[in-house]
Amino acid sequence: MKVHLNFNKKHIITVIIMLVLIWSAVGTEFNPLLFRDLGNTIDFVKKSFLKPDWSILPIVIKESITTIQIAIMGTFLAIIIALPLSFLAAFNTTPNLFLFNVTRSFLSFLRSVPEIVFALIFVPTVSLGPFAGVLALTIHNIGVLGKMISEIIEAADIGPQEAVKSTGADNYAVIIYGILPQIIPVILSNAFYRLEVSVRSSLVLGLVGAGGIGQLLSIHFRIFQYNKVAVDVIVIMIMVVIIDYLGGYIRQRVI
Description:
Layout: H1 2-27, H2 38-49, H3 57-89, H4 97-112, H5 115-126, H6 130-154, H7 158-165, H8 171-205, H9 213-222, H10 226-254
Helix pairs in contact: 3-4, 3-6, 3-8, 3-10, 4-6, 5-6, 6-8, 7-8, 8-10, 9-10
């Protein structure tokens, strides 16, 4: 009887999964038959992208550096603000339940709003340019890093904390001497990961005028200069690969 019930459950789950996939395919107008015209895309790429205009390379490199600067500032400022908020959002360090719930909800709100929305909000205040991108990344990263760090704090070893408490130290001393030394390496690891993500996010922010190579890519697309788009894409690929490699190396070998 149990075998029969398990058999039926597996069939029901399989049917549900299939129905969800069909529902998603219909909603996204998924049609493999359209790939018969893939040759059009190949011809377009050959004609438009295989002759890069390398004369714009110095400008592209300059904007790439701006993109990296946006990501660095957006990540650094977020860590500075997220760290104290994380202690309010961690159940083992928060002063009271009210602050715990308010801070958690605030961080969840910041995480739920995409960076591009924050960029559009700040453009009327700080105008178009890299600063809008920095502010957008900072606010979104506060939500992401705040949650990450609060969970790291909650998972910290209780031993060092008890040792500091046994000396008669207050809660602030427990945080400084019992928790921070444990979590700083993990925080740095997460910060480097967020830096990698921020580089990719800043590319998208450039599409709404937040500076960097993303903005240059958007301009070249809008005026149909695909030979320049090819240079933008090549530099972006190289930049992302280098950032990923360096970030991975630092997280695994140094920290």
